[in-house]
Design a protein that fits this description.
- By secondary structure, the chain is mostly helical.
- The protein has 5 helices and no strands.
Length: 73
């Protein structure tokens, strides 16, 4: 989880102000509690879509979120 937070923070300078606010709002949802993460799957998917919009620089975030969502089922 720490890697994902680091990647998101690295991505933030490339985001629009609105995208950055969405990522900022999503960060608290990224807790190590698996049950909490399942409940927040929609948030994770939304952040993945935001990362995808910035192209190559967002790819590591998209990949990390894809792996995380796959683990959560």
């Amino acid at each position: 989880m720490a890697d994902l937070v680091r990647l998101l923070n690295d991505l933030r300078p490339s985001l629009t102000p609105e995208q950055d606010r969405s990522v900022e709002n999503a960060l608290p949802a990224l807790t190590p509690d698996r049950d909490a993460l399942r409940e927040r799957g929609v948030i994770l998917a939304s952040v993945a879509q935001i990362a995808a919009t910035v192209g190559h620089v967002g790819r590591p975030v998209v990949e990390a979120l894809g792996r995380l969502l796959a683990l959560l089922g």
